[in-house]
């Protein structure tokens, strides 16, 4: 990372890639994208975000206060470890085509039920207080997945409100799946 | 945490609880256990471990070097976000009884294939170099789960070797599921 321009192996639609793209944009790190169509499971990209945080500490993506940091990590892990792995491509393939939508919706609503409740005690303008954090980087791509799977978001007013606010920020817009080098023309915006 | 003895809401068999128990033992933090039989999904307990690391920095569970820290987090996230959520109780229930074993084995072997390869470049005595880290806290409970699901571990010599070494350490023994307040008599050792 210190030597030369970092390379992000990215897939336009992957919520894991999107999280990292938001972090790179927030920290104004210039990078090259190598699009790949093979997606690994899980929330491994959180390790990249923590690494960026340690090597490029400004702006902070983790609050200084240990309790708030724990809240940020709890929310990030709930999304990246508790929801996203259950509704990613390889798991859906294993579930079988006829059950995919129900399966993904169940994973997301059960996670969002917990998340909505947590946010009611941690949120300010964003997921934890009024500063953008790693939790917000996880929230927006997950809400986009929820929309793809036609999850009804009415029971989640806090999630919806924070998501809407975050999507007005430039870092969340330039990193959006509809604006990546490998986005197919019909999905561009 | 600063005021009074911390309370761990724990389930003897949960790999998430076990990870945290190892961290508490390594940091010599005295705590009370409240056994609970309700288990939340995912790797949320990594937030507790990071919090412990920040408030009780000795002994370190994350290496000082940012690249090594990223390796530790990558391995931890692979296990806690990429493997464990796919084989936990609530997902297995959703999968249906007749498919549970195959499902869990597939999730674990696909994760262990990636993990074995990563460890070949990061491991020393333990997962990352020669110091016990958060990655090791994730490894041992996951290997125990693999054994419960009768996964053949012969293709994973590095995973098996590190697991065996770690199980000789006291922190991994006192925190073991077979020695918890809520361990049923027939599973005690």
Automatic annotation (TrEMBL), chains A, B:
Keywords: Phenylalanine catabolism, Tyrosine catabolism. Residues 65-185 form the GST C-terminal domain. InterPro entries: Glutathione-S-Trfase_C-like (IPR010987), Glutathione-S-Trfase_C_sf (IPR036282), Glutathione_S-Trfase_N (IPR004045), GST_C (IPR004046), GST_Zeta (IPR005955), GST_Zeta_C (IPR034330), Thioredoxin-like_sf (IPR036249). It catalyses: 4-maleylacetoacetate = 4-fumarylacetoacetate. Pathway: Amino-acid degradation; L-phenylalanine degradation; acetoacetate and fumarate from L-phenylalanine: step 5/6. CDD domains: GST_C_Zeta. Its cofactor is glutathione. One of its GO terms (molecular function) is maleylacetoacetate isomerase activity. One of its GO terms (cellular component) is mitochondrion. It comes from the Eukaryota. Residues 4-136 form the GST N-terminal domain. One of its GO terms (biological process) is glutathione metabolic process. Its EC number is 5.2.1.2. Belongs to the GST superfamily. Zeta family. NCBIfam families: maiA. This is maleylacetoacetate isomerase. It comes from Lynx canadensis.
């Amino acid at each position: 990372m210190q030597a030369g321009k970092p390379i992000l192996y990215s897939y336009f639609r992957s919520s894991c890639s999107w999280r990292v793209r938001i972090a790179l944009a927030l920290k104004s790190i210039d990078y090259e994208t190598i699009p790949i169509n093979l997606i690994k499971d899980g929330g491994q990209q959180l390790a990249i975000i923590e690494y960026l945080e340690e090597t490029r500490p400004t702006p902070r993506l983790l609050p200084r206060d240990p309790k708030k940091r724990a809240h940020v990590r709890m929310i990030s892990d709930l999304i990246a470890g508790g929801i996203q792995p259950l509704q990613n491509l390889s798991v859906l393939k294993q579930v079988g085509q006829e059950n995919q939508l129900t399966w993904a919706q169940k994973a997301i609503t059960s996670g969002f039920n917990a998340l909505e409740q947590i946010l009611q005690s941690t949120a300010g303008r964003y997921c934890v207080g009024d500063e953008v954090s790693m939790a917000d980087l996880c929230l927006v791509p997950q809400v986009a997945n929820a929309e793809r799977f036609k999850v009804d978001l009415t029971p989640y007013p806090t999630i919806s409100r924070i998501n809407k606010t975050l999507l007005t920020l430039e870092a969340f817009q330039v990193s959006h799946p509809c604006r990546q080098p490998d986005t197919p023309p019909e999905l561009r915006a």
